[in-house]
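quick one before i forget lol
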Amino acid sequence: MIGLVLAAGAGRRLRPYTDTLPKALVPVGPEQDGTAKTVLDLTLANFAEIGLTEAAVVVGYRKEAVYERQADLEARYGLKLTLVENDKAEEWNNAYSLWCAREVLKQGVILANGDTVHPVSVERTLLAARGEGRKIILALDAVKHLADEEMKVITEDGRGVRRITKLMDPATATGEYIGVTLIEPEAAVPLADALKATFERDPDLYYEDGYQELVDRGFTVDVAPIGDVSWVEIDNHDDLAKGREIACQY
């Protein structure tokens, strides 16, 4: 199993930082050896802490900034990095971005969005939930008070995820998907096929819509509640401020 980070997005709501950087490289933590920690740093550190030795990073917007840091990131976290290019990062949404990593998925991955600041306890929770035929396990926050923007999930005992979308009444949701997933190798081909069907239907769809496509096809997608932990998806400057507070805790 290896790590996988989706870091192709532009993050236009984080300008001026993202005028020159992909969102995953916007500074969120204190400086270390003259370099401020980013979401990508924090995620790779999590991967290293759970014993992974390899990771892939899907790049697109301002990809040269990731290439420039590749050697430093490898040395800093002891991970061999493979960069996977998304040629439509500024045109299409992330269902296509994850599909670009379809060959990587065959190794089994812990997938993390490149804008989610979270503790390593999330990865540990996913690893602890492996087994008993589970092929895809989503990290679920069942504690947070939900609003309209969150990626909400409805689950059913014994059947896993029944619905995953931002477009639902928050009061009906079981919790929020936080942007971290464990994907076993045997799920790679069906997931890639579902993602392809998703972006071909509408290139603006999310990879979570690909998860819904899988569920609609009868594939079981499971969840693992992460407990009451501090995390944030960084979409705007308010989120960035919160992310910087959280990063100092880890």
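fyi Residues 53 and 79 are 5 Å apart (CA to CA).
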